[in-house]
Design a protein that fits this description.
single chain; mainly beta; Sulfite Oxidase, Chain A, domain 2; five-stranded antiparallel β-sheet
Amino acid sequence: MLHYGAIPRIDLATWEFTVTGEVEAPRRWSWEEFTRLPKVSVRCDIHCVTAWSRFDNTFEGVAAAEVLRGAAIRPGAAFATVHSYGGYTTNLPLAALMEDDVLFAFTHDGVPLTPEHGGPCRLVVPRLYFWKSAKWVRGLEVRRDDRPGFWEQNGYHMRGDPWKEERYSDPW
């Protein structure tokens, strides 16, 4: 389990998830409202930038496409910044975020996510290195430009495709 900084203490009574930025209809959910959204289950592999993989994981939560439904994304918006409790951010093209296997997960292999693993809710983007699957998520900011997140500002690749070995922005 790798992460930057301390594991945030998140009170579900005050937890919220927002969709802001380049949208006509900003969204906000409490934990109770968010967990009532339609659920999906995704079976996938995890690929870490440090060169390990874990196969056949099952995550359950809310599809990212469901979260963005109804927000009315403005023309020209093509990226998202994912914001997490604790200040972490990561960036994604909207096209990657809208893939059918991307979700905001509450459980891993049938067990609620622990804080160490990003609970109560983490993003899961199976087609990209797992640093893009931000822990402790609290919202999305829809953007026109691709703004680097925390690890991307510190030398990690802007996209992070494991099949293309997109680990770092500069070759070593």
